Amino acid sequence: MKEQDNLNRERWCQSVVLAILIVLGTLVIGILYPSSDSSPPVSMLVWISIHSWIALQTLVLITPGFWAAWLLRSRLPRLWVGIGFGWMIIVPAGMLFDAIAFRWISDRFLSAKILRVATDLRGSLLAHAQWKSVAPTLLWCMGFAVVAIAVLWVSKPVARICMRHRMVAKWGVNIAGVCVCLFSLLALADWQTTANQMRSDSTRHPWVVFRIIDLDDATASEINSRLAAVSFVIPKEGIEQRKVQQRLAGLDWDSLAARDEPFPDVVVVVLESFRHEMVDAEIMPNLSRLASEGIHCRHHFSGANASNFGMFSLLNGLEAIWFEEPVRYSPLMNRLFHQAGYELGLFASHDDWRLFVMDGFLNEQQFDVFQCEPKGWSEVDKRTVLRATAFLNRTNLGDKESRSPRLAVVYLYTTHADYRSDPADAVFQPAADDSFPIPYLPAQRDAVWNRYKNCAHTVDRLIRPLLDRNRVVVVTGDHGEAFLEDGTCGHGTKLSRYQTMTPAIVYAPGIKPERMDQPTMHADLLPTLVALADLPMIDLGVFDGNPIASKRELNKSDLKERVFMIRDYLSDEALFVGPWTTSTESEGMFGIGCRVSLGDNRVRITTAISESGDTMTDFSESQSTSNKKINSQIQQEWLKKRFNRG
Ligand SMILES: [Zn+2]
């Protein structure tokens, strides 16, 4: 009997030791793998109280496991470890997965985005996964498993030691418990500071990770009410009218027949994951020279934060909300330039169009010459540029007079993660070497950024033959790329400025050099090409975009006060970009978040979004008056212009 009592006491003691080690574990994970390095600085006392609050959150979460272990300890001694420890270990495991998920997609592990990644997008993402992005996660998981087994193994001898020094252990645990509770009370008393910390470093807080409290949603609903929670209907007849317009889009045959001037050759260079900071004389001298001789759009946005929507928008002059509609299978760029007698070529260092649902418009039927290699780095890009140059320089059977005009779309891949450059171009140092992990930690960010600059330096050298000044040239990215500015690495995960903004440079022979500071978008580029090549279109209203330049002059007036929409890859969220995006009076507001679908013909405004793609939490009252203005601007400048054209 006494032996049984002793055994029970030992198991109780082991449960307590396990609980303490789990609490320490969650604190260590939060410190080793922070979700940001930008939490507001706090005093030592506040630091202690916030960490006590984290410990208390863990304790509350593991309590059911702890009591399960306690109740089962004598009847089912084996099961008590299984259920009790199993439950307890879920808390730090959840914290670790959440921290990793957060660096990828800036959202919770328990979220709709992760569900979509695990179901719909699993195939395309697995095919696209690089070893270096899988390996660090695997290493973290293996390390975690090893530590968990070690904790279980160590807890028994520690429990025995504690039993030998029973009084010390008992008082130690009691005092620690009282301290955690007292300091947690301090954290709760100053809830504003604690809430700010929880928001800025949310993966450290178990209750946020397990969605027991959702600070963002609380703030979002508050902002919603200030934004007057607008939801508006897109008129069905407006949608149908646009679809008819898209089907009928074409050139005016009479003007075409009367024309005797040849059309200019056109080159559209698309660089993967391309950031606007790269247009710099030191990083990309060839491109920045072109930017200074043409129109440099300095606030340009892709149609989305991902390749498929971005390319769709570029090839159709439409916002990406039309992606699911029939127009996707008959891109307007190809249709219009074919009608003008152009030969069209697609040259790409990338060919998995099907995985990202781009095969509907990037295929052999749409282009006269279709040359794509499996994705590769600068070696493949070199070949792609050679093929495109050969296509552009080729004459028709030696008869120069009858040579048809050419349009080449050149899609280069080198600037995609993991940002490889040719060794001779590694001029920005210190740069991360090939072994850097994805996702990387905040301390590695600057070295990865240098690596990306080196890679852009290589690409600049490669694209030089394409930037011939006798052609109409557009150079842009398919979307942007985040380097932890919004808490994430890469793209396709967040509607932040960093993932959606990419440069656009437009050149045509004789064009007046200009810097364009009004927001522009991918859907503007096709109408711009149509204007610069002087294609006689029947109805320019088919496009969502406006020409940035027409008849070799800048078209600033049409671009003023515009509102346009960019789309997220992982969710059904979208964002309205408008005058507020570049305004100094909008308190750092980047866009207005919304949910939109042409299917249920409705737009629901959600929240104001900052440039890091987060819900804005520090809106002042004065802003709420202008929110009304923002709503009416969206209705006037977007809804009316797109769907109610009278
Ligand atoms: Zn891309």
Automatic annotation (TrEMBL):
Pfam family, one: Sulfatase
Domain of life: Bacteria
Membrane-spanning ranges: 12-33, 45-72, 79-105, 134-155, 167-189
Sulfatase N-terminal domain segment(s): 264-534
Keywords recorded for this protein, A-Z: Membrane, Transmembrane, Transmembrane helix
Protein name (Swiss-Prot/TrEMBL): Sulfatase-like hydrolase/transferase
